[in-house]
Amino acid sequence: LETFDGMRAVLEVVQKFVRSARREIAALDVALKQQDWQAVAHCSHRFRGACVIVRSKPLTRWTEQLEALAKQLRPLGAEGERLLEHCRREVLQIDRWVQSTSTHSVSKRE
After folding, report:
1. pTM to 2 decimals?
2. Distance between CA atoms of 102 and 48, rounded to whole angstroms?
3. Are 36 and 29 in contact, with CB atoms under 8 Å apart?
């Protein structure tokens, strides 16, 4: 039972991360389209902090790259879009993992 409660707590944290990540990605998308480099840098920095907490090395690396590019205060072009798309896909994969793990854990418990 303790293992299940521990896993449930992990899943809750990761689910919250996924919801937050989706908001950050949406904000980054808007900032990129508006070419608001300060907003891109700020959102990337904030998002990176959450990525570090959940130990997602790919997301941490991509958000770090986005922040560094945005701090140059020049158009990010295809590179910014590519990095953001990597983030979207990774968050989707994490969400799929959470959903399958949640379903599997509930099935085992019942």
Report:
1. 0.86
2. 25
3. no
Q: In Å, how far are 34, 69, 96, 104, 109 from 87, measured between CA atoms?
A: 19, 15, 14, 26, 33
Q: Convert the pLDDT of each residue in 41-96 to its tens digit.
A: 999 999 999 999 999 999 999 999 999 999 998 888 899 999 999 999 999 999 99
- Cα 55 to Cα 59: distance, rounded to the nearest angstrom: 9
Instruction: Record the tokens describing residue 61, joined without a space.
Output: 């690396």
Nearest C-alpha neighbor of 79 from the set 6, 104, 109, 87: 87
Phi, then psi, of 76 in degrees rounded to 5: -90, -20
18-31 pLDDT, tens digit per residue, is 999 999 999 999 99
Pair 26, 110: CB distance under 8 Å:
no
Measured CA distances, 6 to 1, 21, 22, 93, 96 (Å): 9, 22, 25, 22, 19
